[in-house]
Amino acid sequence: MQLNAPRIVVVGSYATGLTMKVDRLPGSGETLLGTGYRVDYGGKGSNQAVACARLGASVSFIAKIGNDAFGEMAMGLYRDEGVQTVHVQQTADAPTGVGFIIVDANTGHNCITIDPGANELLSAMDVARGVEASAPAGVVLTQLEVSVAAAEAAMVAGRAIKAITILNPAPVRPLPASILSFIDVLTPNETEARVLAGIRPDGAMEPENIAQQLIQNGVKNVIMTLGERGALIVNSSSVTHVPAISVPAVDTTGAGDAFNAGLAVALASGANIGDAVRFGVVTGGLAVTKDGVISSLSRIIQVVEFYKKSSLTAPGWLSTVAG
Fold first, then answer.
1. What is the pLDDT, as a whole number, of residue 111?
2. Residue 96: helix, strand or coil by DSSP?
3. Collapsing DSSP states into helix, strand and coil, what is residue 168?
4. From the centroid of its chain, how far is CA 238?
5. Is the dihedral of CA 10, 13, 16, 20 positive or negative?
6. 3 exposed, middle or buried (CB, 10 Å; 0-12, 13-18, 19+)?
7. Peptide bond connecting 136 to the previous residue in cis, omega within 30 degrees of 0
8. What's the pLDDT score for residue 1?
9. Is residue 119 a contact partner of residue 96, using CB atoms and an 8 Å limit?
């Protein structure tokens, strides 16, 4: 870890991922044969913490896991990846969370179901204390695989320590108005943005107009991820489209986590919002080229090599973080 590494606090979930591939995603009531079953590290918070650490950040993770074999598996991961675990609590009151992932072998698209387990026991007080103790930090990043109260506490505490606050609203659920004004950067996909804005899934509205609704509700910046079309940056003064990078898609499972990690590391390194999203698009794009989640998260040296081999200009701060 570099002495000048950007400091990030990630508040979120851990869930062991159980994955298999199918020729196509099943319909309602349908049973299909799968292949390639594997057990992986998972949970959006954990993935994003590891991804940030691999990108050169100093990462403190705030989470709750079970006092069981899957929990020990998680702690081993954090030791190996250099993620700080002072605020990762193990409990005997609930099992470690579990996620079931089905991947379409032909397209790389996936569907996921989750049993949160111990994640649901992470309290707002746990989060507030952990964030405060982790100061100073450039970014506080959270998701919605923990309770809304815990996510709100992360944003409020992040603002209190003068960090940039990022909420990745997945899995999406309606949010109280009280949390929105504490979010500096909201990173939904188009479906999640519609839910948060109270717009019907089939309602006719352009992505930038959906994002503007969220800005009016109190969010400072909306970064809407658009998959193969890149990302849209919307705030009160501008709308900017950032195109995706061209890469072969193998498995999209970890792309969102890799995007959010890249965004967080760039912002914590002093990048402006546009450059940070461009970096997130690169880290998210690189993730779809590999199977799995943890295995798809790039290390900083791999990102540097991609910039060298592509026609893209690497951000100036990247060499500082990479050492």
1. 87
2. coil
3. strand
4. 24
5. negative
6. exposed
7. yes
8. 55
9. no
Q: 58: which DSSP letter?
A: E
Q: Vertex 11, ends 98 and 279: CA angle to 5°?
A: 100
Tell how strand 221-225 and strand 231-235 pair up: antiparallel
Show Cβ contacts of residue 216 under 8 Å, excluding neighbours closer than 6 positions: none
Could you give the CA distance from residue 230 to residue 294 in angstroms, rounded to a whole number? 22
CA 216 to centroid of chain Cα atoms: 24
In the predicted model, is pLDDT for residue 323 greater than 80? Answer: no
Q: Does the pLDDT value for residue 19 go beyond 70?
A: yes
Length of the chain: 323
Mean local confidence (pLDDT), 255-273: 97
* Residue type for position 118: A
Phi, psi of 300 (to 5 degrees): -55, -35
Pairing mode, strands 139-143 and 58-66: unpaired
The answer to whether residues 190 and 228 touch, using CB atoms and an 8 Å cutoff, is: no
One-letter amino acid identity for 215? Answer: I
Nearest CA among 60, 135, 290 for reference residue 299:
290
Higher pLDDT: 61 or 39? It is: 61
The answer to whether 182 touches 159, Cβ cutoff 8 Å, is yes
The pLDDT > 70 percentage for the chain reads 99
DSSP state letter for 119: G
Structure token digits, residue 88: 């990762």
Rounded distance, CA 303 to CA 145, Å? 28
Return the H-helix or E-strand segment holding 40. Answer: strand 35-40
Judged by DSSP in three states, 60 sits in strand
The per-residue pLDDT for range 96-148, each reduced to its tens digit, is 999 888 989 998 888 888 888 999 999 999 999 999 999 999 999 999 999 99
Tell me if 225 sits within 8 A of 188, measured CB to CB.
yes
pLDDT reading at 3 higher than 70: no
- Domains of the chain from N-terminus onward: 11-313 (3.40.1190.20)
**Which residues are part of the catalytic machinery?**
257
Quote the strand ranges of the chain, DSSP E. 7-11, 15-22, 35-40, 58-66, 84-91, 97-104, 110-115, 139-143, 164-168, 185-186, 221-225, 231-235, 239-242
